[in-house]
Amino acid sequence: MKNITLLFMLFISTISNAQFPYELPKLDYNYDVFEPIIDSQTMKIHYNNHHKGYVTNLNKALENAKFKNETLENLFLKMDSLPLAIRNHGGGHWNHSFFWKTLRKEAIFDTTTNLSHQIIRQFGNIDSLKKNIIESGTKIFGSGWVWVVKNHNNQIEVCSTSNQDNPLMANQKCNGKPLLGIDVWEHAYYLKYNSKRGEYLSNILNIIDWQKVNQRFDQ
Ligand code: MN
């Protein structure tokens, strides 16, 4: 009986975050968990101000829209015909929810996974993939995200998007199933790293939940 209640609660919590009105998802950790790589003040502001702002503004933008009950993933597919506020805040909410779930303090890269085998086939080794991510993330002009996606040929690709766009949105050059995404907006690193975005990227790659990334690759 307890298990059924738990499953039901999980179901409800998934639902409440997957459709209008959207809610700020709970974090599975404290703000200081990634110190010194991500300082707790940055975490707190990033989550409580920035992410919360995207959720609030997304709900406002959807309030009177006739398509408000469609999933975000569905709306992403027809993004070009929707108001810009939905693109920016819908992307903002989805990207950050995904980002928090991709980080893990005790990050271990398991070399026996399908993901690992594919990385070795395409990049030679994990360090070479990481180098690609750092390069791609450093090159983004202005605000955006660097992604690792599984593309339509089941290949791993490193690419980037501007602002709060993501690889699920229609007509993106960076397109496919997101495996991992790293926020390179200044609000994600500036308090601690100032203008050293490359150093932030290089450090944050030490707290990626590769187990989660591998699950996404396999699914
Ligand atoms: Mn952000």
Notes on the protein architecture:
This protein has one domain: minor pseudopilin epsh fold (3-Layer(bab) Sandwich), CATH 3.55.40. The chain has a 3-stranded antiparallel beta sheet. α2 (40-62) runs antiparallel to α4 (84-102). The chain has 9 helices and 3 strands, in the order ααααααβββααα. The two termini are 29 Å apart. The radius of gyration is 17 Å and the shape is globular. β1 (144-150) and β2 form a beta hairpin. It has 219 residues and is mainly alpha-helical. The site of manganese (II) ion has 7 residues, from α2.
**Averaged pLDDT, please?**
93
CATH architecture: 3-Layer(bab) Sandwich
The fourth-level CATH homologous superfamily is Iron/manganese superoxide dismutase, C-terminal domain
Order of SSEs: HHHHHHEEEHHH
The gyration radius over C-alpha positions equals 17 Å
Q: Tell me, what is the CATH class?
A: Alpha Beta
Which geometry do the CA atoms define? globular
> What hetero molecules are in the model?
manganese (II) ion
The fraction of residues assigned to DSSP E strands is 5-15%
Please tell me the total number of domains.
1
* Unreliable spans: 1-16
Structure summarized in a few sentences:
With 219 residues, the chain is mainly alpha-helical. Helix content is 50%, strand content 10%.
Comma- or semicolon-separated keywords:
9 helices; binds manganese (II) ion; three-stranded antiparallel sheet; disordered N terminus; 3 strands; minor pseudopilin epsh fold; mainly alpha; 219 residues
Write the layout of secondary structure elements.
Elements lengths: L1 H17 L21 H23 L9 H6 L6 H19 L11 H10 L2 H14 L4 E7 L5 E7 L14 E7 L6 H4 L3 H8 L5 H9 L1
Bound molecules: manganese (II) ion.
